[in-house]
Every structure is written in structure tokens, then in C-alpha cells.
Amino acid sequence: MKETFLGVDVSSSTYEQLNKQIFDDIRQNRQSMIVAINPEKILKAQDDPDLMELLNKADYQIPDGVGVLFASRLNKGGIQNRITGIDMFLTLCEQAALYGKSVFLYGAKPGVAEQAKERLLERYPNLKVAGVLDGYIKDEAYIKQTINEANPDILFVALGSPAQEYWMIDNMKDLNVNIFQGVGGSFDVISGRIKRAPAPVQKVGLEWLYRLVLEPWRFKRQSKLPGFLYKVWQDKKSR
């Protein structure tokens, strides 16, 4: 189940539906890729056909951005809730611990993935973390060999967007991994290096405002939301 905004597909599935589909992929030994979609990525894809093609190649495009919810409502769509990249990441770790599946953390600055691993094991003691690698290692052959030797079911890639999406699509066929998810700065948050918005703020969809207060430089990025919704509205009228 997907909706399309300015040419970019977005999944309208719930967490429960996504979990079932993703773990079915693991059981059936299928490869699939998860990408987080927000208004900024959709707008960037308007001027970058390669990026649009890349995003639409993903199996699961999760609605990570309150602007995507607004766009869905504008189009009378069915996307009811945000599914943030970090929440999908944590949900998959929780389910992996429950079903005995393993995960691998690749990306971020040296030491961050290791710290994230420690925090994840505190939260999910039964989680199998097959390995970690930082994102500053440049030897691609070594990276792929290390991941393949670890043989994880799920690979989380934290290289920033869209670098992580390009890396996944370019390398997934060479890796013995079923599920790939680009997770941006999630390792920094899980490790405790960056503080996430309090749960009540997340619940009402104002995490973007919390981050804007802490990181004012994000204003330029956040200011694109009205333009995005206007383009979605124009696109709706033209159809």
C-alpha cells in the first residue's frame, strides 16, 4: 500500500503491517530496503531524477516527516501516523530480539556504533548484534567482507542521506543480508550523543520543532515545508 507525492512513493502501512512484511522477507530469504521519506527528500528528488529513481526502488518508504502526513490528508490519503527512521530501527531491533534475528550497525563516527550497540543491548538484552563498523572506513571490500562474515539478518546503515541509500542499492546484491535500512543519525541518538525530543513532543508530531530550537541552523530546511505542501496541492489540482 503506497501513496505518491510529486512522483515519490510513500508506504501507507502501519508499524504492525510493516513488521509482518519485513519479517516475512527474512523468513522467505528475500532482500528488501527501507528508506525514510520526508518533504526535504521529495523536494530534492524533483531536481534529481537519479534520487527519485533510487527512492522508488526501495521496498518500504516510511513516512518520516509530519509534512508527509499533511500531504496525505491534503490528498485524502490513508497515512495516519509518522513512522520515523529511528522508531523503525528500534522496532526492528525489538522484533529481532524476540525472534532470534541478528543485526549489524554500520556507519557514524568511530566509536558511535559501538556505543549504540551497548545501549541497544541494555534495552534488548536478547538482541544479537552480529557486528559494528564505523562509517569512516574506506575499504569497500573490507566492509563487505566483514558484514558477510557476520551474516546478519538486518543491516542498519548510518551514512547520512542520500549517501546511505546509494550505498545500499549499490552493494546489497553483494551482501548476505535480508533487510537494509538507512538510519541517518540514529546511532548518535541511541548512543546518547544527541538528545531526542521528550516522548510527549514526539507523540504530537513536534519533534521537528524541538530539534529546531536546539539546532537553529535547521530553519532553512524546515522552511521548505510550506512550499512542499503548495506543490502537492498544485499537483492535486492539475490531476
Automatic annotation (TrEMBL):
Catalytic activity: UDP-N-acetyl-alpha-D-mannosamine + N-acetyl-alpha-D-glucosaminyl-di-trans,octa-cis-undecaprenyl diphosphate = N-acetyl-beta-D-mannosaminyl-(1->4)-N-acetyl-alpha-D-glucosaminyl di-trans,octa-cis-undecaprenyl diphosphate + UDP + H(+)
Domain of life: Bacteria
Record-level GO BP terms: cell wall organization; teichoic acid biosynthetic process
Sample GO molecular function, one term: N-acetylglucosaminyldiphosphoundecaprenol N-acetyl-beta-D-mannosaminyltransferase activity
Keyword terms: Cell wall biogenesis/degradation, Glycosyltransferase, Teichoic acid biosynthesis, Transferase
Keyword Endoplasmic reticulum included in the entry's annotation: no
Metabolic or biological pathway, per its Swiss-Prot or TrEMBL entry: Cell wall biogenesis; teichoic acid biosynthesis
InterPro entries according to UniProt: TagA_TarA (IPR034714), WecG_TagA_CpsF (IPR004629)
E.C. code: 2.4.1.187
One Pfam family hit: Glyco_tran_WecG
Record function comment: Catalyzes the conversion of GlcNAc-PP-undecaprenol into ManNAc-GlcNAc-PP-undecaprenol, the first committed lipid intermediate in the de novo synthesis of teichoic acid.
Family, similarity comment: Belongs to the glycosyltransferase 26 family. TagA/TarA subfamily.
Annotated protein name in UniProt: N-acetylglucosaminyldiphosphoundecaprenol N-acetyl-beta-D-mannosaminyltransferase
